[in-house]
Amino acid sequence: GGGFGRAFDNISMMTALGHRVTIAQYHPYSEDWCDKDCVKKLTDLGAEVVLSDWEKFYQSRIGFFDIVMISRPSTLTISFERWREFYEKYPFSLVYDCEALWHRRDYG
Questions:
Q1: What is the pLDDT of residues 65-104, one digit of tens each?
Q2: How far apart, in Å, are the Cα atoms of 45 and each of 26, 85, 95?
Q3: Do 4 and 102 form a contact (C-beta atoms < 8 A)?
Q4: Of residues 62, 92, 72, 60, the one with CA closest to residue 27
Q5: Which ranges of the chain would DSSP assign to H, the alpha helix?
Q6: Which phi and psi (to 5°) does residue 88 adopt?
Q7: Model-level pTM?
Q8: pLDDT by residue (tens digit) across 42-59?
């Protein structure tokens, strides 16, 4: 999408600084979201790309993540209560960044 360059730069900087980065999407995986070349670019940076159900994945790692970034208004709306439940078990920082990751792709 239109915001991929900005998001990719952010991920690139985070991994370059030595942070472990995991990328997952709320909706079931499709190549429309990130095709094989896209996944390779991300994993070449050292980022982990999760193609399975985000909720089961996160639940298996409660307490592992210090920061969770959500990049779509609709995703935050749908998943907020679940994130709150996770937060109550193990607090984390929530970054809500949808400027280029969602707006430009869906509304051009």
A1: 888 888 778 888 888 999 899 899 899 888 887 765 454 4
A2: 22, 31, 21
A3: no
A4: 72
A5: 4-16, 36-44, 54-60, 73-89, 104-107
A6: -65, -30
A7: 0.72
A8: 999 999 998 888 888 888
